[in-house]
Design brief:
By secondary structure, the chain is α/β, with parallel strands linked by helices. The radius of gyration is 22 Å and the shape is globular. About 45% of the residues lie in helices and about 15% in strands. The chain has a 7-stranded parallel beta sheet with strand order 3-2-1-4-7-8-9, sandwiched between helices. The chain has a two-stranded antiparallel sheet with strand order 5-6.
Length: about 300
């Protein structure tokens, strides 16, 4: 009798644990780099609204990061974790997956990775990387030459921030995706032949060009795991970065760009987030391997 009772309890305990695990693994999580400000924050809101728990990264603005976290928790009641650091550095990217493995791996399915974080060093962010001459370098005018030696320091920084970091995040993320998912990069106009080249964006653009090309190759193999892989190219999205550009250019830079859009209506970060949600849904599953302009027709004019 005792033996039968023990067997029954063992079976019951196994079934309870199995049921619990299956419930937990219905939880879905998205990793969004630069997810506490600007376009990344719009993406975070859209995914949180659809029930995703979030792992968000930020670099230097800790105050804003925690304000964003508190808001998301209060509004959506989701689990939100933060990771800080410059994602051009491997140790910062290690922190993302260390935290994911500790806080999400046993209870969630990793469904989405969005590599959104970015900066135009010294323009839209402080030059905390101590790069020299960050505003003057461009291709074809010999500005990269210094005493007959070429200076690749700034270019390599952007290629690490956009190219290397994107590859690292996608590869390690894809390894952890067991039930399909989406890999998404956020690029900028002028980094591929969809747009005319954008003078002045030479250094950041060289990094995002890597992202856009790698994305196409990544999509070929990621599809075997039911994972689609795309890049979104936003148009003029109303964020705080435009205020800085206005001061530098001495004109309303946002209005200048948005006037070139066929749909001349203010776009907000969450509208990019809503496109991310679509690409991550079953309805968007078969869209893969493309650089998608979400720009109100800007690509038709520049």
């Amino acid at each position: 009798m005792i033996k039968k009772l023990f067997i029954l309890l063992t079976i019951l305990n196994y079934n309870i644990n199995t049921f619990s695990i299956s419930i937990n693994l219905e939880n879905k999580v998205a990793i969004i780099t630069g997810g506490t400000r600007g376009i990344g924050y719009g993406i975070a809101n859209s995914l949180a609204e659809k029930g995703y728990d979030l792992l968000l990264t930020y670099n230097t603005n800790k105050y804003k990061a925690y304000l964003s976290k508190d808001y998301l928790i209060e509004k959506y009641n989701n689990k939100i974790e933060l990771v800080d650091g410059d994602l051009s550095l491997k140790e910062s990217r290690d922190k993302i997956f260390d935290k994911y493995d500790r806080y999400f791996n046993k209870t969630h399915n990793l469904k989405v990775i969005v590599h959104n974080c970015g900066q135009y060093v010294g323009i839209t962010s402080n030059n905390c990387e101590n790069l020299k001459g960050i505003k003057k370098y461009s291709f074809g005018d010999n500005s990269l030459l210094e005493n007959n030696n070429i200076n690749f320091e700034t270019m390599r920084y952007y290629q690490k921030l956009y190219g290397e970091a994107y590859i690292d995040l996608c590869e390690r993320g894809l390894y952890r995706m067991n039930d399909g998912g989406s890999l998404i990069g956020i690029s900028s106009p002028g980094c591929t032949t969809i747009y005319n080249p954008q003078p002045g964006y030479d250094m950041p653009g060289s990094g995002k060009t890597i992202m856009e090309y790698v994305m196409r190759l990544m999509a070929l193999n990621a599809g075997k795991k039911n994972v689609n892989c795309n890049v979104i190219v936003p148009g003029a999205i109303k964020t705080d970065a435009w205020n800085i550009l206005n001061k530098i250019t001495g004109r309303d830079a946002y209005q200048f760009i948005s006037n070139k859009q066929s749909i001349n209506k203010e776009m907000k970060p969450k509208q990019i987030g809503d496109v991310v949600v679509f690409l991550c849904s079953n309805k968007g599953r078969y869209i893969t391997g493309i650089s998608l302009p979400v720009d109100g027709g800007l690509h038709l004019k520049i």
